[in-house]
Specification:
With 98 residues, the chain is an alpha/beta fold. The protein has a single domain, classed as Metallo-beta-lactamase, Chain A (4-Layer Sandwich), CATH 3.60.15. Helices cover 20% and strands 36% of the residues. The protein contains two helices and eight strands, in the order ββββββαβαβ. It has helices at residues 51-60, 78-87, and strands at 4-9, 12-17, 20-21, 25-26, 29-35, 41-44, 67-72, 96-97. The longest helix is centred in the middle third of the chain and has 10 residues, at 51-60. It is globular.
Length: 98
């Protein structure tokens, strides 16, 4: 699985990434970006974005200024939470954990 962003619908993108077990077996991982009716964005789950993916997310979200929240819906993404929040500090700096 290669790292990429896939547009699923007008207001929904899936960020597909790599997750290797034992450094060998790539089972993949994902996060999602959704545009709300307000025009602001929410990231569902965290993923450490490489420079190319970050540039794509930045282009969509006004360099991250329009990201209102990062919602981590399950514990499998915890290894990416700190990096995602470092890249995109939400306006209220909210950290939600499901």
């Amino acid at each position: 699985m290669s790292e990429k962003i896939v547009k699923i619908a007008d207001d929904f993108w899936n960020i597909r990434g790599e997750f290797k077990i034992g450094g060998l077996l790539n089972i993949g991982t994902q996060a999602s970006l959704l545009r709300c009716a307000s025009g602001k964005y929410v990231l569902l789950d965290a993923y450490t974005l490489n420079a190319s993916l970050k540039a794509e997310v930045d282009a969509l979200t006004n360099n991250g200024a329009d990201i209102e929240a990062i919602i981590n819906v399950h514990p499998f993404h915890t290894m990416h939470v700190a990096q995602m929040h470092e890249q995109y500090l939400c306006p209220l700096q909210q950290l939600y954990r499901g």
